[in-house]
């Protein structure tokens, strides 16, 4: 599969550099659409790329719903022309006001929020009312379906949903649940494990509806459970994978059932050959994410490569091929975890047909774009 990564003129490109193989991105988007059945059922997470041009590409592909984790990502989406943004992250402290400022500052975009706590819901409501927003903030109740990170216990979620529905300045917009802890390599085992969380979401939805409370949407999951949520026979479900747009070596090896191809690679170079059997690359953990533990990349073109120590700007590689790897040799590497890797780069070089055809800014790597 590795010859799908053609790069004709690496000699003019500084390294380390983030490369986006755009034909593969387009294919991944097509696969996402096919799996979801309808673009309306997709709400991809932008935290993977943080790039306005990628938002525009999704919009051109008919995908108009977006999910994000930071205020900067939300603002980036609105600036890029996205008109439907869900910020799936608890709003606390000054971020409550910043969120309301976003809603006021970009009136053509609908900004949806999540809450998992009555006090936080009241704070958002008060800020929304004080700002006199043209429309109430669509607010989803975030459920903890077993990950234990954020979200309310489903047993208490009906009361919170009712509370949100009654608060001025907010409307209940549905339920949100992220099941990133479902990581079984086998799809059927993953489906069985995820079913309890899905059932819990459906139970909360049905209980609210039975009380006459509208629950317009259920926003579920990330990439590993995407095929499972996409196959649910429920048209109120929106799937919110992020990683699969660019995909990476981590998910590629852990979840072989996922029909996506890594599309974002790193250009690196041999910078030193300190000893026989050992080269050093310019691929430290300021160029490729140090998360998770273990190998941070899969190096292409060096079949026996074993990754050695890594520091800020250096990655040692142990190989029997040092004779073929003089300093300056360009190499490509697939990141193990693409999302934090993108955030380490100010821009990505877009590669099409082996040529660099553009430079895309990773705009939302910053914490604030203005608001
Ligand atoms: C709340 C939320 N939704 C969706 C996603 C996307 O998940 P994935 O990276 O598996 O595509 C994430 C990832 O961290 C997340 O935190």
Task: Tell me the layout of helices and strands.
Elements: E1 17-21, H1 22-36, H2 52-60, E2 66-68, H3 71-79, E3 84-87, H4 94-105, E4 110-115, H5 118-131, E5 137-143, H6 154-166, E6 170-177, H7 187-210, E7 217-220, H8 226-230, E8 237-239, H9 249-254, E9 264-275, E10 278-281, E11 297-299, E12 306-310, E13 315-318, E14 330-335, H10 338-342, E15 347-352, E16 355-361
Parallel strand pairs: 1-15, 2-3, 3-4, 4-5, 5-6, 6-7, 7-8
Antiparallel strand pairs: 1-9, 9-10, 9-14, 10-13, 11-14, 12-13, 15-16
Helix pairs in contact: 4-5, 6-7
This protein binds pyridoxal-5'-phosphate.
**C-alpha termini separation:** 43 Å
Question: Structural class of the helix and strand makeup?
Answer: alpha/beta
N-to-C order of helices and strands: EHHEHEHEHEHEHEHEHEEEEEEHEE
Tell me, briefly, the overall form: elongated
Biggest sheet features: 9 strands, mixed
Oligomeric status of the shown chains? single chain
**Weakly predicted, low-confidence segments:** none
The ligands found in this model are: pyridoxal-5'-phosphate
Contiguous helical run count: 10
The portion of residues assigned to helices is 25-40%
Radius of gyration: 22 Å
Mean pLDDT across the residues is 97
| Percent range for β-strand residues | 15-25%
How many individual β-strands?
A: 16
């Amino acid at each position: 599969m590795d010859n799908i990564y053609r790069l004709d003129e690496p000699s003019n490109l500084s390294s380390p550099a983030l490369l986006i193989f755009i034909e593969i991105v387009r294919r991944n988007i097509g696969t996402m659409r096919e799996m979801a059945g309808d673009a309306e059922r997709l709400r991809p997470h932008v935290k993977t790329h943080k790039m306005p041009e990628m938002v525009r590409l999704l919009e051109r592909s008919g995908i108009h719903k977006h999910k994000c984790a930071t205020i900067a990502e939300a603002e980036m989406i609105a600036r890029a022309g996205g008109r439907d943004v869900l910020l799936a992250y608890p709003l606390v402290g000054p971020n409550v006001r910043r969120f309301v400022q976003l809603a006021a500052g970009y009136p053509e975009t609908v900004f949806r929020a999540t809450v998992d706590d009555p006090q936080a819901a009241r704070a958002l409501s008060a800020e929304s009312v004080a700002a006199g927003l043209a429309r109430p903030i669509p607010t989803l109740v975030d459920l903890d379906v077993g990950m234990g990170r954020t979200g309310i216990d489903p047993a208490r979620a009906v009361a919170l949903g009712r509370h949100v529905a009654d608060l001025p300045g907010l409307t209940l917009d549905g339920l949100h649940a992220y099941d990133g802890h479902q990581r079984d390599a086998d799809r059927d085992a993953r489906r069985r494990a995820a079913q309890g969380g899905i059932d819990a979401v459906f139970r909360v939805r049905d209980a609210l509806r039975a009380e006459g409370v509208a629950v317009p949407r259920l926003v579920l999951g990330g990439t590993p459970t995407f095929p499972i949520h996409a196959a649910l026979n429920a048209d109120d479900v929106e799937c919110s994978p992020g990683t699969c747009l660019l995909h990476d070596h981590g998910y590629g090896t852990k979840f072989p059932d996922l029909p996506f191809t890594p599309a974002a690679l790193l250009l690196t170079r041999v910078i030193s050959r300190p000893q026989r059997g050992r080269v050093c690359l310019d691929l430290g953990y300021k160029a490729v994410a140090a998360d998770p533990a273990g190998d941070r990349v899969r190096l292409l073109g060096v079949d026996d490569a074993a990754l050695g120590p890594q520091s800020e700007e250096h990655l040692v590689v142990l190989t029997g091929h040092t004779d073929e790897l003089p300093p300056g040799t360009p190499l490509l590497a697939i990141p193990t975890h693409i999302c934090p890797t993108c955030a380490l780069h100010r821009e990505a070089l877009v590669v099409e047909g082996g040529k660099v055809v553009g430079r895309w800014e990773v705009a939302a790597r910053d914490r604030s774009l203005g608001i």
